[in-house]
Amino acid sequence: xxNPVTQVNAAPANEAxxxxxxxxxxxxxxxxxxxxxxxxxxxxxxxxxxxPELYKSGHIPGAVNLPHGKIIASKMRDWTIDTLFVxxxxxxxxNGAAKAAVKLAQLERPVKLxxxxxxGWLDEGFTLQKM
Length: 131
What we know:
Layout lengths: L12 H11 L3 E3 H8 L7 E4 L3 H6 L6 E2 L19 E4 L7 H11 L4 E5 L1 H7 L8
Parallel strand pairs: 1-5, 2-3, 2-4, 4-5
């Protein structure tokens, strides 16, 4: 029987270790983001990269709204060049956060994607702020 899980062998342990450890350089999750936002200085700016309308209907408390299509050099001048940005969008079905991460990286800004977006945030039991 053809098994799609085992059809391709798993990577050797040392390669898997390097791969998964490296993934934390690119992404974070909702739980870690929530924890960090409770600190006096979370050391990052949380960007909601959805539309202003979606942001107003419910966003993560403390997030700044900057739609991914509006991420340009002049908008980034409010932050120092070494500011870490954590980006999110609607959820795993949305690639807006990845688009934002690309734009920020092109502007040579440190960036991580919050895996799960709004969907993941709500799945963890966290609340949204409405305007």
